Amino acid sequence: MDRTNPPPLDGTPPDPCAIALLRGGDRAAVTVAVLALHLRGAVDAGRPGTLRRAGTGDAGAFRHPLEKAVRTGLYRPAGPRELPGRAVVRRALARMRAELVAAGLLRALPPGRTRAARRLLAGLRERHPLPEGPAGPEGLAEREVLLAVALHGERALTALLPRFARDSGLTGRGALADEGLFPFGRGSGIRGITYHGDDSGRDTDHGGSGGGAHGGHHHGGHDFGGGCGGGGFD
Questions:
Q1: Model-level pTM?
Q2: By C-alpha distance, which of 214, 215, 63, 81 is closest to 147?
Q3: What are the tens digits of pLDDT across the range 44-67?
Q4: What's 40's DSSP letter?
Q5: Which residues lie across from 217 on neighbouring strands?
Q6: 152-183, pLDDT tens digit by residue?
């Protein structure tokens, strides 16, 4: 059975959905799952500011339980703010959070990341920086793109897939993305863990509320932007 399994810094490939949840909460994790499905042709932008199932693509190629939940949750189009609240997605996120608590990476009380999680994120950011300059995303494997958005958030998303991010409402006017503002939702306990964070890697473990664009070009059937390449996902 697939499980959330964020690894230690021992060279094991990290789980982008779990890393995104640790960094930016539910919206960040859902964004990574959405992007994974989009890269495989299973999810696309619908009406402005919404996501929808695509008519093509290998919808069965789920590499993480959250991807399956997101695909199922798009039984009708939804905006990025609505999608995490749909029952099947909400349950998948709750399971992820519980597993991260069990792994010692999230605290239920007081809510927030643990010291181990902060070390994990800092180490991953150091090993997978968001490059500056005209490197572009050419040659990046899917996992590298997802990890880039997981670690670096909207900066990576707008650099790598600016058109899809804008058209689907993941970025742009009204999009909070996941800059650590109420990243785990309001509430208490595992279902309502909150912390405040940002893309610089600085964390303060208290509640908050829970987001640069570079020019893009069409690359391999998907919108990859020029300007910044690298790995990270919000």
A1: 0.72
A2: 63
A3: 999 999 999 997 655 567 889 999
A4: T
A5: 224
A6: 999 999 888 989 999 999 997 645 433 333 34
